[in-house]
Amino acid sequence: MRAVKAYKNNEFLMSEEARSVRILCEYLEPERRFRLNGVRNTLPFFGSARLKPGVGADGRDWYMEAARLAERVAQWTLDTHSAEDRFYICTGGGPGVMEAAHTGGARVDAKLNIGLNISLPFEQHLNPYVETRQAYQFHYFFMRKFWLVRLARGAVFFPGGFGTLDELFELLTLTQTGKVERIPIVLYGRAFWEGLVNFALLKERGLISPEDVELFHLCDSVDEAFALLQAGLQPLPPGAV
After folding, report:
1. Which of 21, 149, 187, 219 is the most buried (most CB within 10 A)?
2. For the segment 113-137, what is each residue's pLDDT rounded down to a tens digit?
3. Residue 49 three-state SS
4. C-alpha dihedral (12, 17, 23, 29), degrees to nearest 10
5. What is the pTM of this model?
6. pLDDT at residue 124, as a whole number
């Protein structure tokens, strides 16, 4: 009887001791696939998985607006950028705002959709607008968040809960501290964001610098958000990694 090689030993690979190997896989496998698929620039859409199509209690149809914005971006990048410089509509791959963005992207070309899904006991499943070659499945939240930002050349945040807030403030912190290059960060839905986070109070109390409130843009319409993205999105320079 021959011994099993360590890298084929599934019991070991799923063990506590091999956690670092699994984490490394969630870094290297997506990196390889992005490179093979020619993906260098992404535009992630963030927002609640719980938002459904239709007008909500606040009088807004966030699903429809996210779909329209993603469609505008997808059509623009397809019309004006080379294949190497195109911006891909990237989300967490689930329902709600994530599905809405991919619905809009698929109206132009589903190949522009990227879904970075996460294994959860509830709520999360891969939406049907992401093709298999552009679908990724993560176990570790921090690795998924890393890839949501790693290739991002901009970011759009629709109303959301704990997960959306976590992703927003991590990106703002990374930008504030110079850990990532400054990119256009769009907070969509002025009344929601201003009602949720008192950025002015943070500045007034000296808890953030005055210039930190310039790290993001508040907007309230598809036209306004698209204009901000169109003006601010820049493809990764040739040869950059």
Report:
1. 187
2. 999 999 877 656 889 999 999 999 9
3. coil
4. -30
5. 0.95
6. 60
Quote the CA–CA distance of 80 and 76 in Å, as a whole number.
6
Distance from C-alpha of 109 to C-alpha of 129, rounded to nearest angstrom? 10
> 64: how many CB neighbours lie within 10 A of its CB?
16
Q: Given the structure tokens 């501290």, which residue do they identify?
A: 177
- C-alpha dihedral over 234, 151, 225, 75, to 10 degrees? 80
Q: Which residues contact 207 (CB under 8 A, 6 or more apart)?
A: none
Name the class of domain 16-232. alpha beta
DSSP code of 92? Answer: -
For the chain, the domains span 16-232
In this prediction, the residues of the chain whose per-residue pLDDT falls under 70 are 122-124, 239-241
Query: Can you say how many angstroms the Cα of residue 135 is from the centroid of all Cα atoms in its chain?
Result: 13
